[in-house]
């Protein structure tokens, strides 16, 4: 879904990286950045386009923002459960600038987030990085697939699998990812409209099921893990309208080999924007669109974050008349970063049997 | 319990004090003046030092911050790719590129500092303004730096340049100029390290400076393990150095300079202490009778002790306050001198602002109070010893020879102890000063015996030939002894400082002149303004130039070495012709000219602990090369270590190097200044900017800087003399005025006013002459200590000893002049004394 925009983060960069605790209150209005007026010169997402892979795994210059968003639920053989997140965001400077004669000249700025939920240890770790693109400090390419910021990176290996490696302060990911399904184009053939305003939309696809194995380290302790990851890819120039104030986003992987992506955009009057929608992916890869209303999505329990926002950590929805509960594996999966938000691992419970029906990720962003 | 009597006793005591002070105002004023001058010097020097020290710290912090390591590659710089590798391969996040150079905006010199904001954030270094955790720290935003051709300035700098946010200005470097936009201003923050720094993005800086692809250095915060990984990974021509070692030697040098100044100011306070002792003991002496009466009325000795100490404390409090006020004013002047010296000698300071440090005022005031109380303690104790009604019984009017011998022996012991401390090599600078203090104090203790001996000898040998008033004067001195001895000691110490510092600076200056003669070859020097290599065709043109008889070339490269960044230099002539060699064996000189080893500069040898026979590791493009140290040469440039070697060895280590300087020898009939002017005009059409300067001008400029450096020592010397002058005036007044009664008696028995004045004139002349003569050996010892110990330990410089006779003659004249000037008022008073009135005193 729509992820924290980089320009905002850059503005907060210095405050966030000092020895002080990062500030909780965002200093810039999300809408200014995502749907702000300074979009001249950038390409807009206004009509459906033809997606081509692997080319579209790479960057899309001309748009203002783009991100690579890896999340996953993995566990050890003994059942110790971890949720992880590794995301890369870019924000392009307004086009048309004349860059100075230097290899450091960059018109793209990068931000990356690394988070780990250790369910058994009841700990959530979150880190962020910022960098300019040049000289070779951060970037993305399609073939071979490679996204990096310093030494946090995803790189394609010889057998076509992707290798994630990222480490910070004793937390480390060393994971192999192999896609089990073709890319899923979200919205209207990959064009995801966020409001009625033309161009307030993004190009959006997901890799909904990536078999994942490898090693996760917590405080130097290494755990061999297996599980599933999800990649969200989105690029856009502006997305939100002025009266939109945030969103709730779900990526759920069910044990019956189906997946659901679902988001609801929130309005300033605390309502649900009609552009909210979702997408089912069947076991065979076939897809169907849905909406939060169709699934009767409703929050049932809350947790109050350090920013004084109430985040819904338990939700209820109906799948073919079957009641499902989506609950956070840990209430506090708040990322106290330059741009603070709640994002964490969840599991899906069949309300009738009480059995676990799947896992996934939930993201809640408020302004 | 308070007895009824005690209630009226104390007010009575204070009243008697007050009345005494009213009757002898000059005594109080002189004490106040002496202490105030002493406190003024301590406060001023302390303020100047703390301002300069803070300026130094901030300048270092502005440029290097709180980093642990730095990667540098000398002149060649560090390729961009090294930074990328550090981040993406080694994953070392706490790293930042830097690029610094001198630039100009209109006629204002600024330091350009190119930085990458994202990297800066990882270092969390204490660059003012970069810590944005405070509320609204900036006008505009640092992120504005990310826009192309944007710059950030200190608000004061922007105001000086007449720039507002959004306005454009031309930033000029040696490589050309570029139009930048003022994107943000750092606010006024009291003291800030950014007075004259212009911040731009690293990309903009590379573009402005024409330095695409290279950085000056990379700043890092590393653990030991990480540092080891970096060392393994770096190409051989780059070095990882510990940040502290870079600033340590600079810090050592500047703190040595500060210690020198502080010691001088404390010396002034020492002279002031002698003055206080003198004043207080006089006032006790004058009130001996009154104290006797008070004692017989039941006042205890303890109460008298307190009374005198309170008087001293009141004087010191008033004087301290005056001194603090004067010191603050003088400090503002001194800080300019101090920072200019540091700027000239060691380090380009980006901050030269006066820092008002209240603590320095408190310290100076307390010094004055403490020294006064200590100096007043003995007379106060003497007051406490007053017996009830010891009428007319003079105190301390006689000194047994045994006492004098004992004092002198103690003095000799102190001098011996001082010399032993000097011999202790590990003692460092502070110990050097302590030793000097011992020597000075010891010398003071021998003064009474010397005075006694000289007077005795003089009276015995020439007594009969002297006119009566002169003989009388000398006898008076011999009888009083203690007070004249004190005056002689105070004046001798003050004058010896002028001798010591004078001989030291004179020797230093002579040494620098010799060094300049030796190291400046040819008559005209040509180099590029940015220090870059001279184009081969330019050298050809110079050789063909009319009026040029010969061209010698100098090669220079800044490289990393096992002892940090150093300059390596070679010229196409034998080493001994362009170096002022301090130490080398004849065989080694042949070897050095044959490329078998190198010579190191004296400060480098001192800082790095190198001696002849040691090995030095130099980083060359082809790896690290060990060279042996064959000799040491004098160098007073202080721009860091310097290594000289033969040109063939230089070419072998740095093949393909181009010369950076050409030294032109003029043909016989050609004027060097004229040739320089001609060349300057010719070279304006070159793409690079060049410096053409006649060597005579270099000598002149160097000596100007040298003289400027020592300007502050002249100021302090004069002040020390002023304190001594106040001291000798006080001592003479004391001496004469306590004898007013005797003068009146002399007048009554027929002596004229001018004859009594002659008594005093003879005394002051004698005292001044003696003080001046005693100041000579003491001053020469002081000069030796300053040259061989203090300067060695401060800066690693050795120098020749020269003895300018003018300094010695001046010293004696100074002492005699000060004494006569100080004697003028007592002479007038005594000559005017009426026999009857004086007798009644």
Describe the structure.
The complex is a heterodimer of chains A (367) and B (841). Chain A is globular. With 367 residues, chain A is mainly beta. The model of chain A is unreliable at 1-36 (pLDDT under 50). Chain A has helices spanning 6-17, 30-34, and strands at residues 65-75, 81-92, 108-118, 123-132, 138-141, 146-149, 152-156, 162-168, 171-179, 184-185, 191-193, 201-218, 221-236, 244-254, 259-267, 277-281, 287-290, 298-304, 310-319, 322-328, 334-335, 341-350, 356-366. Chain B folds into 4 domains: 1-67 and 251-395, no CATH class; 78-215, no CATH class; 447-518 and 700-841, no CATH class; 530-688, no CATH class. By secondary structure, chain B is of the alpha+beta class. The radius of gyration of chain B is 33 Å and the shape is elongated. Chains A and B meet through helix 1 and strand 4 of A and helix 3, helix 4 and helix 6 of B.
Low-confidence stretches of chain B: 1-5, 126-140, 189-194, 345-351, 391-397
**Mean pLDDT across every amino acid position of chain B:** 77
Over all CA atoms, what is the radius of gyration of chain A? Answer: 19 Å
Uncertain stretches of 5 or more adjacent residues of chain A: 1-36
Number of domains of chain A: 1
Mean pLDDT reading of chain A: 85
Quantity of strands of chain A, as a count: 23
Q: What is the radius of gyration of chain B?
A: 33 Å
Strand content of chain B: 15-25%
What is the 3D form of chain A?
globular
Please, what is the oligomeric state? heterodimer
> Helix count of chain B, per DSSP?
27
User: Which series of helices and strands of chain A comes N to C?
Assistant: HHEEEEEEEEEEEEEEEEEEEEEEE
Structural class of chain B, by secondary structure, is: alpha+beta
Helix tally of chain A equals 2
DSSP, total strands of chain B: 22
Classify the helix fraction of chain B into a percent range: 55-70%
Number of domains of chain B: 4
Distance between the termini of chain A: 16 Å
CATH architecture of chain A, by name, is: Beta Barrel
Write down the CATH topology of chain A: AttH-like fold
